[in-house]
Amino acid sequence: MPGVRIKLQERSRKIFFRKILKKLKYPNLRVLSSELCIPYSTIKKYSSGELLIPGNTFFRLCKLSSLMPDALDLEELPGNWGQRKGGKKGIETLMQKYKKELPLWREKAIKNSSGKRLKKIKIPQMSEKLAEFIGIHLGDGTMTKYFIRISGDYRYDLPYFRYISALIVELFGIKPQIFKDQRQMNTGYVLLRSKAICSLLNEKYNIPFGDKIRNKACIPNEILRNKKLSLACLRGLIDTDGSVSRRGTDGKQFCIDFKSHNPVLLSQVKQITEKTKLFTHFYNKSSGTNCWSSILKYFTTVGSSNLRHVVRFHQRTLGNTLYQKEVIGYYEQDLYKQLDLPFKGLVI
């Protein structure tokens, strides 16, 4: 219910939040705040009664936890209830205390605000960069009607998170957040909050909200029909849901591997990589190659924007097969710090 605020009586409020945590199997309010993408301090204030709960948030919580609102002792108040309650007294006090100054303040405010406009998001046309971003989302992204969240391993993917952040700014004109999940030791996120961008991706490119596998998320046809766009999208997929790693005894083998439980997406990756002869094996839930000539071709034609993959590949060309845990030590080397991404080629 937009514009409505929910006021729960103390006993009902305690029951409400206790049952939500129990039903969703969350250990505390901090975890709940992370899942809802609501600041922890705000959730705490809802729980303590310091803030009234917005109607849409309240009914969303009821739906998630299967709680019936009718069973709670609550009161629905208009959205501007707090403003109306405190605003009238505040205005009266101001009028009395600053009777002479108020007209001057109003005049100054009008002058300062003239010509200012709300910042608008950029609406990008299809390009290799947008295709790569869509691939990134299809690989490790989650999209609701209100935000897009790209996940990864915070230990190894922080440079990549920064690349994604810069890519989002260039495409949409909005700077996302980069943060570490406090619940899970090694998980990190890039979070883009924009209903307009989520609607754009959904309506124009048919990227579904919610579960990507259940909703059969796939590469848009506009990308598939174009070779350059397809390869850029493939780069986003491999940089998120793929791996570039050593394999076999003493790391003698090296491979690129893409795994997915989405059969539609997997078949599209096969379609792209078969045509270009980039991958050499295709299974039910994975595709890739451990053929060195195909790996060389992949990095010269597709490349990578994920420094973790670039370092492992480049070191392999020098005869070093790195374990993943060894990669971080290379990030601060000038050779890699000054690298332009996406990287394509054999020599840095």
Summarize the structure in words.
With 348 residues, the protein is α+β, with helices and mostly antiparallel strands. It folds into two domains: 4-78; 128-337, Roll (Endonuclease I-creI). Helices cover 50% and strands 15% of the residues. It has 15 helices and eleven strands. A four-stranded antiparallel β-sheet has the order 4-5-7-6. It has a four-stranded antiparallel β-sheet with strand order 8-9-11-10. A three-stranded antiparallel β-sheet has the order 2-1-3. The longest helix has 19 residues, at 154-172. The protein is elongated, with a radius of gyration of 25 Å. It starts with a strand and ends in an 11-residue tail after the last helix.
Descriptive tags:
2 domains, single chain, 348 residues, four-stranded antiparallel β-sheet, alpha+beta, 50% helix, 15 helices, Endonuclease I-creI
CATH superfamily of the largest domain: Homing endonucleases
Instruction: Report the CATH topology name of the largest domain.
Output: Endonuclease I-creI
- Beta-strand content bin: 5-15%
Mean pLDDT: 84
Q: Biggest β-sheet: count, sense, barrel? A: 4 strands, antiparallel
Strand/helix succession: EHHHEHEHHHEEHEEHHHEEHEEHHH
Total beta strands: 11
Return the domain count: 2
Tell me the Rg in angstroms. Answer: 25 Å
Structural class: alpha+beta
Architecture per CATH nomenclature, i.e. the level-2 architecture of the largest domain? Roll
Helix content: 40-55%
Q: Calculate the terminal CA-CA distance, rounded to whole Å.
A: 56 Å
